[in-house]
Amino acid sequence: MCTCQRNISYLVAAKSWNRPIVGHLAWAMGAVPVKRAQDSAKRGSGNVTIDVKQITAQDSSNTLIKVVGKGTKFTSEIKAGDKIRFPKSALGIKVESIDGDESMSLKLEDGVLEVISSQPFPEYAPFDILPHIDQKDVYQNVLERLASGGTIGIFPEGGSHDRTDLLPLKVGVSLIAYSALEKDGINVPIVPVGLNYFRAHRFRGKVTVEFGSPTYIEPSTLEDYKRGGSDKRRVCNALLGRIEDSMRSVIVSVPDYEKLQMIHAARRLYREDTETETAEQRQDMGRRFAEGYKRMLLKVKGDLPEEWLNLQSRILSYQKELNQLGIKDYQVVGLDHEEVEIGSETQGHGKGETVLHRMNIMGHIVHLLFIIVLAALPSMLLNFPVGMASRIYSNRRRKVALAASKVKIKGYDVMLSERVLCSIVLVPTLWMIYGLILFFFTNLDGPSLAVCFTCFPLFSYWSIMATEEGMADVKDLRPYVMRMIPSARKRLAALPATRKALRADLRAVIRHIGPSLGDIYYEKDVNWQEITTETKRLSTISSEITEETKAEGKKED
Q: Is the whole model's pTM more than 0.85, yes or no?
């Protein structure tokens, strides 16, 4: 919002628009409310099954899937155009026709076969009904804003989540772009914006915002869009695929959270210890590791060599050891220059040196504790009650959101938003309570009370800044405390050698496989949109080869 020269109108879910505070803020920002089918989802009566054999046996011209129900009420609960959703899937499958209370036909579209194959068919399974929602008014509102020179902000995945990769994009962004070109002659630039979070569920977590190259509609495809039907679906899906490629160029996408941890740890080990990385450099290097890892998986068809698996396991074990000891990778470099095991006979230190070293560590601990206490005093009064209440509230909201979602893993994506919303209400409420206490239980006159009350915002801000510095000291405090524990001291002493060996092995592997990665390895400035498109192409080829191999195996059987 700060970097765009135009006012941005975000599309916001009607469910959020109707919430207090959130709705008011969205209205103030000029957002456009959108009703989502998943917000009106309801459990369908009975259970359904699908004959999977009919799908594999049918010819390509047949785009319908027959659904058989048991105890269902299709005629009264569902109508053509609605969608149904199966357990553990976020994809809604369009209902083409209702043939009776226990028989209906679904439309075979992209992603449907994957969903069906994940279900326990031919056993009967429950299902949700997603009613069809007419978005005509929303599209009209959006097109008017684009025609007047406005900017629309869209989250094309259709909602928030805490996964490490993109969800399937909704086709709405393609329809809006083509409608603007058709009705107003505007070829809207579609600019991808990547939000890369670090500790997103924690207060004052970090986020890197990255902008990619805009995607435009090919004007020659407009006639196909106007013809409608399969031609319209084809060009909209093609545009959506290009948008997805552009979005992948501004995020670091990996298969799962464990791989994300491994990639971040590998990035930190690979860089020079004397270098100070900027956020842009960290993002670039993380993406090189992520794309390189995916390329190598495709190259070996998912069957990684033993030495790579061993290195991956060692990196994760190293990161786990750091987490248990409560230190960061950059702090291990400092351990290599300090006498963690000072006083041992092998190092030739005397008892006096050992005592002095222990006293030095105690001095660090006392100093850090003093700073933390100073930082905590104002925060205890002004921010701690709100912080604790907002933490409890956000965790409850997280559980509610997780139970209602089909795509969230732990629901961490909603926690910080809920904490901020809670704080917006509780912070001024706490100030009013303190003001009433001062009014009724002190002898302060009116001007003094006014000064105290108007100073609360300033004191709260100062306490937040002090708490942030105090938390930085807390992170530095744990390594010193751990050095006072004999068993932990030995583990700390072993870390520099472990890190050195890991770093050498990691660099050796990268030197070996790097040249095969082309621009990812050699070029300083990389066109990430081209890289992600190429990775997607290689993945498609690999999938086709795998399917052909399976088909040949079945013929031989």
A: no
